[in-house]
Write a structure and sequence with these properties.
The complex is a heterodimer of chains A (416) and B (522). With 416 residues, chain A is α/β, with parallel strands linked by helices. Chain A is built from 16 helices and twelve strands. In chain A, strands 1-2-6-5-4-3-7-8-9 form a nine-stranded mixed beta sheet, with helices on both faces. In chain B, strand 15 and strand 16 form a beta hairpin. Classes of the chains: A alpha/beta (416), B alpha/beta (522).
Chain lengths: 416, 522
């Protein structure tokens, strides 16, 4: 964390971290050149600037040319903007950057700091500094950062456009993992990420860090914009981190980079839903390289969104039906503290569903739904009841949170 | 054949009554012809448009080809009042008749027995062609006390729907002259409205043809019973259009007065088929989503009824609802609110009736397969959101029911339960409407959908367990107050179909199944 004593190594970390925010693969290149992070940090700024500036511009030219051909007109503009910011930071130098303002509730954790999460040191190209943000005072922020380093974390990743089932599984995993004292890490993207964060926030466990969001843009940038309320909530009760400097905008190349940090932070990675070429697969690949536990939530065979998890299951990933499976895979004691979150649907429980007697007539409807989701018509046929009556019972069950209506008109029993 | 010119050889003036249409209303037009012995000329004055100007050529040819003479005189035709814009070819006949009277080739035989008006388009051979809006013209003439109407034979059936107006059909200009000289002559028999209504009812697509889709069918029945607007969501090929097309068949049959109202609009729009002078089925209009706002609600230089007026007392079906232009959908708000549409122009302001039931249909996502059991949706999440977001706005507030229309599997299509016919459903709807009319008496509404929030509070009696369910839904599902009102309104309709005096929990529960669901509920 910030201190008033001048610390040239720390300044160097922040400076290189900022430079790496504007140019992909910079740290990797430096580490390759000098043979290790500590060796990099023992170089003089002038040497580093020479290597960073020269080699990068050569590769950027080649890279830029390719991208221009592939993407629209916006890309060269974005790249030249990134380039300008890079050169400004390069010129400012370590000493100058150390004095740069930090947004409210923000802090920078450098490689050489005590609070730097140890899990990230396993990476071949670790971020040289982490930009961290939480809506709290400095003391609390320090406490949260320390907790992140000490907790056992699980990354929940998946598609941005999940099915209702996927969203529900992500939500339940987020909730139940936190209830068992684990830290839920995700990327604050739409879909599975958001559901996992929301689940963790909903768990209402005591004072620990509610959830950790790893962003592909500056930690003070709420992206995507629709997740702004969620971002604020994570700031309030959890922590947002990024290897990218303050105010860095979201760009396509920053998300794969962010995924490697999620993979490194988590002791296990759970993939919920993802298409064949999903970004979530990258996270899992990083996790496999790092030797983390990999779990996959099964889905229906042959569906587009179950391609990625099933591919990993085939390759030997552990099956994840509930938080319990994650606990088992991590080998931490069975922390089924309050009996909640078995992850099984009410179908597995007693046939009464814990409902009042006025629901006696709804039981056949519930029983029909236990075998899979049904439209009102199908449920009516199964129960041999008029459709308007079945529709009424389904609505009451929906009001009570037992079933939900999926897009397409099918009612699904919710996992509790 | 009388000689041209007056017996005294001086200028002669002839007058024939006619009628101009502006919107659905008629305005009297006096066609005057003046013939003087001067350099040959034929001019029409009195704010004529291009079609009226061209009438000169048609009239000239028709007169010559009907074995009358076209003398080399200076002929001036005036269409009075001079400040009313005259449009269309319907003045051909009165102009020709005025000309013939002015040149002494025909005599106006109506003196003292009440006037006869004339409308009709002329062909070059002297034949009479039908004009648009004959019914509206006839009604307007009748209201003004005009005795009879000379018009093309093809329009006769339509005009004779107006009781008390003598209708003199003619196939040619010569027929019309004969009628004029006789001061009327043999009138067409008045139409038997009830017989026409009876004969026309009962055809059209029937609900019997639809296999499965019980929930959607029930939703449509509820919607029709309370005149609620409804939104159908489902993948392509699920049968949304098929269902919607069967709605007019389960709506209460048109009354005679309603049939006349609908016919008048179709006649003005020129959409009345010649062999069916009376529209006997409630209209079903399905404009394409590229329709302009003028096409949808009416307007244009010569304001014409739009789709929403053509669907008056029937169904306006908007397939691919989110694809419609925002401006067009915005323009729908007034008709949905007021049951009519007012079009303002520089000089006039016209009102077309537009009491419709709106049936909107959409895919659940741009590709159409979100939530489908067999096919995967390929839409990125943000596109699905954008698609749904296009619907936000006050128009959605006017749609009381939503229902999913999933694709029916072949197994479900071989449903053992036989489908009900439209006739059976309609009987229930008619009964429910009657109950509503009794309750709504004095509020100005004719069906539950049109109840104000105050009516809902004062007229709808919800039983205690119904209120408990409603409160729970309000809390758990985060319904807005407005959404709650909609739930009660629809529940009232369900109770009316049920023949129940009060709204029970079962009615509320079913009504909740037709409510709108917010995206991303979890």
């Amino acid at each position: 964390m910030n201190s008033d004593r001048p610390d040239p190594t720390r300044d160097l970390c922040v400076w290189l971290g900022t430079l790496a925010s504007w140019r992909s693969g910079l740290v990797k290149r430096l580490v390759k050149t000098f043979g290790g992070v500590d060796e990099v940090l023992s170089q003089t700024p002038v040497t580093l600037a020479g290597i960073a500036g020269k080699k990068a511009s050569a590769s950027a030219a080649g890279d830029g040319g390719r991208r221009q051909a592939r993407r629209g007109d916006g890309e060269p503009v974005q790249r030249s903007e990134d380039e300008a910011r890079f050169l400004t930071a390069l010129r400012t130098g370590p000493r100058g950057l150390a004095r740069a303002p930090v947004p409210r509730g923000g802090a920078v954790v450098a490689w050489c700091d005590r609070l730097y999460p140890p899990a990230l040191r396993h990476l071949a190209d670790p971020p040289l500094c982490l930009f961290v943000r939480g809506a709290c005072d400095d003391e609390e922020l320090g406490r949260r950062i320390r907790l992140v380093g000490e907790s056992m974390a699980v990354a929940v990743v998946g598609t941005r456009g999940p099915s209702p089932y996927g969203a529900e599984m992500a939500h339940l995993l987020g909730r139940d993992l936190r209830l068992r004292g684990l830290l839920v890490v995700s990327g604050l993207a739409m879909g599975v990420d958001a559901a996992a964060h929301r689940g963790a926030l909903a768990a209402g466990a005591p004072a620990a860090v509610a959830t950790l969001a790893v962003l592909g843009c500056g930690a003070d940038v709420a992206y995507p914009r629709v997740n702004r309320p969620l971002y604020d909530e994570v700031l309030r009760r959890g922590l947002v981190v990024s290897e990218f400097a303050w105010g860095v905008p979201a760009r396509a190349w920053r998300f794969p980079a962010r995924n490697r940090i999620m993979a490194a932070l988590g002791s296990a990675v759970v993939i919920v839903e993802g298409a064949e070429r999903s970004g979530a697969r990258l996270t899992v690949d990083y996790a496999l390289d790092l030797g983390r536990e990999v779990l996959a939530v099964p889905g229906e065979a042959g569906r587009r969104l179950t391609a990625a998890p099933h591919a990993f299951l085939r390759e030997g990933a552990a099956l994840c039906e509930s938080a319990q499976d994650v606990i088992a895979a991590l080998g931490v004691g069975s922390a089924d503290a309050d009996g909640r979150g078995s992850g099984r649907g009410p179908a597995a429980e007693a046939p009464g569903f814990g409902l009042g007697s006025e629901y006696a007539k709804a039981l056949p409807v519930l029983a029909a739904l236990a075998d899979g989701s049904l439209t009102a018509d199908q449920a009516a046929t199964r129960c041999a009841l008029p459709v308007y009556e079945v529709a009424g019972w389904l609505s009451r069950l929906e009001v009570d949170g037992l079933v939900s209506l999926e897009p397409g008109g099918a009612y699904r029993l919710r996992r509790q | 054949m009388p000689n041209a010119g007056s017996p005294r050889g001086g200028p002669v003036l002839a007058r024939i009554a006619s009628e101009a249409l502006s919107g659905l209303e008629g305005h009297p037009v006096e066609v005057e012809a003046d013939v003087v012995a001067a350099a040959p000329a034929f001019s029409i004055v009195g704010l004529p448009d291009a079609a009226v100007q061209e009438s000169r050529e048609r009239v000239r040819a028709a007169i010559v080809n009907s074995a009358f003479q076209f003398p080399s005189r200076r002929i001036t035709v005036n269409l009075a009042p001079a400040d009313l814009r005259k449009q269309g070819p319907s003045f051909d006949l009165p102009i020709a008749l005025a000309f013939l009277v002015a040149t002494g080739q025909a005599a106006d035989g109506c003196d003292g027995r009440g006037r006869i008006a004339a409308v009709g388009e002329l062909g070059l051979d002297g034949s009479l062609r039908p004009v648009a809006g004959a019914l509206a013209l006839a009604q307007s003439l009748r209201r003004r006390g005009v005795r009879g109407l000379l018009l093309p034979a093809a329009n006769a059936a339509e005009a004779s729907l107006v009781p008390g107006l003598e209708v003199y059909p003619g196939r040619t200009l010569a027929d019309a002259v004969a009628h004029l000289e006789a001061g009327g002559g043999e009138a067409a028999p008045p139409a038997d409205l009830e017989a026409l209504l009876r004969d026309g009812d009962g055809d059209g697509p029937d609900l019997v043809d639809i296999a499965g889709q019980h929930h959607a069918r029930r939703a449509l029945e509820v919607a029709v019973a309370g005149a609620h607007n409804i939104l159908l969501t489902g993948p392509p090929g699920a049968g949304k259009t098929m269902l919607a097309r069967r709605l007019p068949g389960i709506m209460p049959p048109l009354t005679a007065a309603e049939a006349i109202e609908v016919t008048r609009i179709f006649s003005v729009a020129g959409l009345l088929p010649p062999e069916r002078p009376l529209v006997t089925r409630r209209p079903f209009r399905a404009p394409h989503h590229t329709v302009s706002s003028v096409g949808l609600v009416g307007g244009g230089g010569t304001p014409r009824p739009g789709e929403v007026s053509l669907a008056h007392l029937g169904v306006l079906f908007l397939d691919e609802f989110p694809e419609f232009r925002l401006s067009a959908l915005e323009a729908l708000r007034q008709p949905l609110e007021d049951g009519e549409i007012t079009i303002s122009r520089r000089l006039t302001s016209l009102t077309f009736p537009a009491r419709i039931m709106l049936v909107a249909a959409m895919n659940p996502c741009p590709c159409g397969y979100l939530g489908d059991r067999e096919r995967d949706c390929t839409c990125p999440a943000h596109r699905v959101r954008q698609y749904a977001a296009r619907l936000s706005g006050p128009l959605l507030d006017r749609i009381d029911l939503r229902v999913d229309v999933p694709r029916v599997t072949p197994r479900e299509r071989r449903d053992p339960v036989p489908a009900e016919s439209s006739q059976e459903v309609r009987a229930r709807v008619v009964r429910a409407r009657r109950t509503q009319l009794r309750r709504l008496c004095g509020t100005g509404a004719y069906a539950n959908a049109h109840m104000t929030p105050r009516d809902v509070r004062t007229l709808c009696v919800v039983e205690r367990d119904g209120i408990a369910l409603l409160d729970r839904a309000y809390d758990r599902l985060r319904l807005s107050a407005r959404a709650c009102d909609r739930v009660v309104k629809v529940a009232q309709t369900i109770a009316d179909l049920d023949g129940a005096g009060t709204i029970g929990a079962g009615h509320i529960a079913e009504s909740l199944s037709y409510r709108a669901r917010g995206a991303g509920e979890l």
